[in-house]
Every structure is written in C-alpha cells, then in structure tokens.
Design brief:
173 residues; alpha+beta; 20% strand; disordered N terminus
Length: 173
C-alpha cells in the first residue's frame, strides 16, 4: 500500500502507476444532482473521456434507487469502508482488524477485478479527484481501461481526524 500526503489532505491507493497529466478544477460546474458522490462520478468520467476511455457506470446506490433496492457490491463496499474509517478514526485500505478491499468486496458477493482509491481531508469531490489524478497510482486505477463500473462513497464525521473520507472502488458490475 502506498500512502501520500497531498497538501492538507491524504490519499492512499492500491495500484500500479501510469503518468498522465490532467487538470481538474477544485469545484465542479453546476451539477443538476447536487450530490458529492455523483459529482465525483462526473469528474471521474471527464478524466476518462479526456484520455480516450469510456465512462464508468455507477454501481447501484450511487444513483437514486427505489426504496428498499439493494446497492451494488462496489457501492456498498465503498460506503461501508468510508463510514468505518470516519467512525473509527483511521485512514487505511486495511481496517484495524486487517480486513482489506478484496475481503470487503468478497463479503458483498463481488468476485471480479477491482481497484480502490481512498482520500480524506476535504468534502470537495473536485479536491478528491484532483488529488487522485495527481498521484500516479490513483490515476492508473481511474484510467484502467478494463473497468466499467464504480462505487464512490463520501462520509463525514466531525469528531474524526480527517472529518471527510472518500472511497472509490472500480470494477465490473
């Protein structure tokens, strides 16, 4: 696992590396949905399109679903990990018990290829995507052409050290 301090925010990843420049603003243009997670999906797909790749489909739960409908495995695992980090005040791909992204995804019934990016310290989707795109490994995850879907979670806890926690899990649902 690689960790990197970016200004007053933190980002961590599980991936290889690919160096491609990308300029993202810290704030998105007017988003008709007004939701930070969907804003992050918008930025992610903009970055992929700028590099000649197709956009990612949101995991069920990232977009509104009917009440009682289950979330997709990528979205559920992303949400659970962001919430766990915020509520237990840690920042890592591994839980304090050593549970990693592969195990979290397996627990949700997902068995395919995946990559996970995590970020903390800002509630801005633009700041999260900017930090990820400035990191070789995070950028490689986002620009991996074999991924078709993504779960993105943002969780806030005022009493935790980072307060804002982001988890992006890419895969193929």
């Amino acid at each position: 696992m690689t960790q990197r301090l970016l200004k007053s925010t933190k980002a961590a990843l599980v991936a290889g590396s690919l160096a491609l420049p990308l300029a993202l603003p810290l704030h998105a243009p007017a988003n008709p949905h007004g939701d930070a997670q969907r804003e992050a999906l918008y930025y992610t797909n903009q970055a992929r399109h700028q590099h000649g790749l197709g956009g990612l489909s949101p995991s069920a739960g990232l977009e509104p679903v009917e009440w009682g409908q289950p979330w997709g495995a990528l979205q559920q695992a992303a949400h659970n990990h962001a919430k766990d980090m915020a509520n237990r005040n840690y920042f890592s791909h591994l839980s304090p018990e050593g549970l990693g992204p592969g195990e979290r995804l397996s627990n949700e019934g997902y068995r395919g290829a995946w990559a996970e990016n995590i970020f903390c310290g800002s509630g801005s989707a633009g700041a999260a995507l900017k930090a990820w795109m400035e990191s070789d490994g995070h950028r490689a995850n986002i620009l991996r052409p074999n991924f078709s879907s993504v779960g993105i979670a943002h969780y806030y806890n005022a009493s935790s050290s980072c307060q804002h926690y982001w988890v992006m899990i890419l895969g193929n649902e």
